[in-house]
Design a protein that fits this description.
Helix content: 10-25%
CATH class: Mainly Beta
Strand order of the largest sheet: 6-5-8-3-2-1-9
CATH superfamily: Protein of unknown function DUF192
Number of strands: 9
Number of helices: 3
Shape: globular
CATH architecture: Sandwich
């Protein structure tokens, strides 16, 4: 009986530790699947946080110490516009993918430097920006001209 009680305690402690170590996300973001299609015919399945409030959009990935390999954040700009991002209070390098309203990558800023306040602009009107961990674009062969697919109906801009 004592062994059973100790086993149950161990399982409960392990579960509690696992829960405490899990990433905690703000209620102002949701996680959505985004599919990136390279010009070489490769598809990458991204899991991106979508900021759904102005505060979450302003904060972005500030203060994060880790991003999973195919994780990141999606920013939406309506209407499409010239966009500049920066790295204020961002602790890790990021790749920034600037994407047009036809879901085509306009340009990529690779390995943006943490805490750098230099504006990193889109090369054209951007509807979306995806931030991935630094080096991901090169590691996965992501280039300007590649396309993304978003879940149908998630954005209604009309």
């Amino acid at each position: 009986m004592k062994g059973l009680v100790l086993s149950i305690l161990f399982i409960l402690m392990t579960m509690a530790q696992g829960h405490a170590a899990s990433p905690q996300y703000d209620a102002d973001t949701i996680c959505i699947p985004v599919y990136l299609h390279t010009q070489n015919g490769k598809q990458l399945d991204l899991s991106l946080e979508l900021a759904v409030s102005p505060g979450a959009t302003r904060q972005g990935l500030m203060y994060r110490e880790f991003l999973p390999p195919l994780g990141g954040m999606l920013f939406v700009f309506n209407p499409p516009q010239g966009v500049s991002m920066w790295m204020k209070n961002t602790l890790i390098p990021l790749d920034m993918l600037f994407i047009s309203s036809d879901n085509k990558i306009l340009n990529i800023h690779h390995n943006a430097i943490p805490h750098d306040l230099t504006p990193l602009p889109s090369m054209g009107l951007a509807q979306y920006v995806i931030e991935l961990r630094g080096g991901a674009a090169k590691a996965y062969g992501i280039n300007a001209g590649d396309r993304i697919s978003l879940p149908q109906g998630i954005f209604n801009f009309q």
